[in-house]
């Protein structure tokens, strides 16, 4: 009697990161010394890039090669289904006179009837007074924070606010800007009390405290204690001159009523927030960003 033993050999797994590692390794090659004797313009650029390359921080552009998505902003995977592509092509078919070019800025010749219709539909959908669509979330955040605060206002913001908001704050007319510890309501109250005591015009209700927070924070994924912050701000500034701007880039489309209208709506705080910033490139799998005015407080 004989026995037969069969050994099952596992199929080799595909290394989906091999291509990216090759591209990354090539991007770390030092290039500055090879340009000695050449143009100072190009040599200086390469020498500056070599500083990053020496630490492995030279990041190349690459085509995604992964099968499981841990890095893109297509949160719900809608961008890969083909459904939105079909709807987009149908929208083009229904609007055969669409413009290829803006032809100018929105304030000059760059606004058309489709823009107006889209922004009115967004405002109606979200239930706000008005909406403005721009090229990206970066532009939306920068536009809001660089133009809304006025001279003499004070900006109070969570220390983990996105860099796009901070970029807008840097060129804002509001020169007094104070971060509070991430999601720390007690420290927020401490900062707001200090603002009240050191800013007579704010204390008198003649200038504003503009508070910046995110609904879901993009790096840690934790949630803003928005209700507690709003209640504290109203207690400290009873004149109503403490107003909130909420970045909903990572919550709009993922939560809230009517298919995902966001964190603020889910919390029932839409009448307590002045401006809402929403991006289209994440859960909505499109591109662009919008700022929506939720109340008349800052109009």
Description:
The protein is α/β, with parallel strands linked by helices and 299 residues long. 35% of the residues lie in helices and 12% in strands. It is built from eleven helices and seven strands. It has a seven-stranded mixed beta sheet with strand order 1-7-6-5-4-2-3, sandwiched between helices. Strand 4, helix 9 (226-236) and strand 5 form a beta-alpha-beta unit. Helix 5 packs parallel to helix 6 and helix 7 runs parallel beside helix 9 (226-236). The longest helix has 14 residues, at 40-53. The model is unreliable at 295-299 (pLDDT under 50).
> What global shape is seen?
globular
Q: How many H/I helical runs?
A: 11
How much beta, percentage-wise? 5-15%
Weakly predicted, low-confidence segments: 295-299
**Main pleated-sheet profile:** 7 strands, mixed
Strand order of the largest sheet: 1-7-6-5-4-2-3
**Radius of gyration over all CA atoms, rounded:** 25 Å
Distance between the termini: 92 Å
